[in-house]
Each structure stands twice: as structure tokens, then as C-alpha cells.
Amino acid sequence: MFFARISPSQVPYLGQRISQRYLMSPTSQFSKEPLTLGTMLRSDSGRTYKIEEVLADRRKPLLCVYRASADGKDYIAKNMIQGEFEYQLNLQRSLSTCPNVRGVIDTVQEHEVFIYPFLSGNLLRLSQKNLSEETRRHVLRSALRGLADMHDRDVLHNGKSGVPDDCPYHNYEESAEGGVIIKDVQISDLEDTVIVPPGKWLRGPLCGNAIWRSAESWCRSRQNQASDVFSFGIVTANALFEMIYVMLNEMVFRVSDDQLKSADSWRYILRRHISYFADEDGLNGFLEHIGEENPFYKRLIDLADSFGPGNPRQPFQRWGYVEPELRDLVGKMTNLDPTKRINAREALQHRWFRQTTYLG
């Protein structure tokens, strides 16, 4: 499910920037159908791309992902959200100097399509390989640098709700001995990004994949860059960044498909939020953050009350098989109270990341 689009009334301080996202380009020929295989796209730079494969068929809205080719090289082509071409182009261009962010490199305005570099793997697939802890730490630190660069520019990534293994992406090679050599690590999937200035919040949208969505997003409450940090700390499946999953192969918020598709799917995920990452101060701070008028205020209190001697909480800080420094880092990134989380730059300075001496 794609998260609800936001309007200027929801975030008045974004006013003009948000409204620009709905202005169709006069040259656009936006289609409701995916591009067909073999379609030749003439880009705004003059290069011709051929659609070779549909990697993700997403409709309503049309947000397909394609493998395209040009001059003997592979690229990724993506349909943009209708009416957001100029907004996204300007935003992604502001990130063009960030080495750990995969931004647009070419456009086809006629079809509202962005062209991106083609990278050979993603975090979820890479995590299934026999990687050393040092390599995994390097991948995570590189991805976090990309997120920090975005946050330095007031850009909120927002996660992603489509395919759960899209982001971040990597170029890597496998050696003859079976090892993995990481060449590039980049945060991708910028289509949902939005500018959120310091001290401001985004309110209303249900952002990101259900498994690693922040509690404030589940509650459709105030969100900002702290919500990205939470998702990074937990596991971002698409995208976004996988700390616990990559290091431990532990899908923290995994629930059954039936539970995930149920009308009250929030119940199963948020109960795990409380079990693993809440303490009294964090829960009280979060309740204050969302406010008593939020329908989740009472729901969260009921979930917290559901724990007892026969069904105790399982705080992440007590997971003895996780090294203490990693527990400390993740705990600081996943404080249930968004105002108490460390930011991306602070996370990069944590001693767990400073241990990395990866040379490739």
C-alpha cells in the first residue's frame, strides 16, 4: 500500500514546495499503464534507453521499476508519482554531490520517468551472503552516511512501501575464493522524500514498510528525520537500512501474513515496539508526542498493559547474544520517544561504527 499523499494544509510550513508536487508538466504524457518491453525512451539529455525488463509492476499509482539499457550499459528507470516530476528533480539534484545517495542521472519528462545508475545488489540479498562482521558494519556505515547527508539537507527519506529489498543498493564483486568485495553503497528509492525543516514535523502520512515503520508513523502522528533513524536502527527493508537484520539475521517485527494483512495489523507490530524498545520514560514520552486525541493513545496503553508475569516484555537491551555496543547504538536509535533518539550524525560517531577498518 502506498502511503497517503500529504497536502499543504497538513504541513503548512512546506506550503509551496508541497503544492508543486501536484503540478503536471505541460509536456507530460503520463500513462496509467507500465512501459512495455522494447519501448525506446528518448531522454532529456538526448540518450536513448530501451526497456529490457519490468522489475516491479506497481499500479494505483503507477510506480513501476524497469531495467533499461543504453550504449551497452544497464540502468534503472522508474515512473514518478504523477505531478511530482519537477519537485523530485529539484530535490534529488540537491543530493547529487552525496556519494552514498543514488540520485537521478537522467530524465524522460514526456513520460515522467527518472533514470538511475544500475547497481548489482541490495542489502537484503547481500545479507544472505557469508559476510564478515567488518563488511556488514562497513555497508551499514556507508548507508548511514547517505542518510546523514540527506538529513543535513533537511530531506526526510520516508522509507518505502513497495518491494522490501530495494534500499540501500550496492555494487559488489565476488572473488574466486567466494568472498564479497563491496564497491559502492548508496541509499536509493528517493521517490517519497520530502523537505522537513529543523523543528518541524510531517503529520498524517503512513510512511514506509509495515515491518520497520516507526511507531509515530503507525499512529499517523508527527514525523521527521528521527523516524528515518528509527527505521535504520530496526531494519529497513526496502529499503532503507538494516541494522539488526543484517548483523543478526533477526527479523525483529516479523509477523504472519494474515496478521500483516488484517485490519488491526498495527496491533501485532506495535506490541513488538513496546516489548523490545519501550521503557517507562520512552512510552510516556511517546504518548505525550502523539497526544490524547490520537486514537492510538489508548491503544498503546492497552498494549502495554497486556504484558505481565506470564507474558513478559523482551527488551532488546537484554538480548545477551547481541554485543553490548550494538545494543547501545540500536537502543539510542530506537527510543520510542522520537525527541530522545540520536540523529544520523551522532549514530555515525558511535563507538560501534568507529570500530570499522574495512579496506575493501
UniProtKB/TrEMBL annotation:
<keyword id="KW-0418">Kinase</keyword>
<dbReference type="InterPro" id="IPR000719">
    <property type="entry name" value="Prot_kinase_dom"/>
</dbReference>
<dbReference type="GO" id="GO:0005737">
    <property type="term" value="C:cytoplasm"/>
</dbReference>
<dbReference type="GO" id="GO:0005524">
    <property type="term" value="F:ATP binding"/>
</dbReference>
<feature type="domain" description="Protein kinase">
    <location>
        <begin position="1"/>
        <end position="353"/>
    </location>
</feature>
<keyword id="KW-0547">Nucleotide-binding</keyword>
<dbReference type="GO" id="GO:0004674">
    <property type="term" value="F:protein serine/threonine kinase activity"/>
</dbReference>
<protein>
    <recommendedName>
        <fullName>non-specific serine/threonine protein kinase</fullName>
        <ecNumber>2.7.11.1</ecNumber>
    </recommendedName>
</protein>
<keyword id="KW-0723">Serine/threonine-protein kinase</keyword>
<keyword id="KW-0808">Transferase</keyword>
<keyword id="KW-0067">ATP-binding</keyword>
<dbReference type="InterPro" id="IPR011009">
    <property type="entry name" value="Kinase-like_dom_sf"/>
</dbReference>
<dbReference type="InterPro" id="IPR053235">
    <property type="entry name" value="Ser_Thr_kinase"/>
</dbReference>
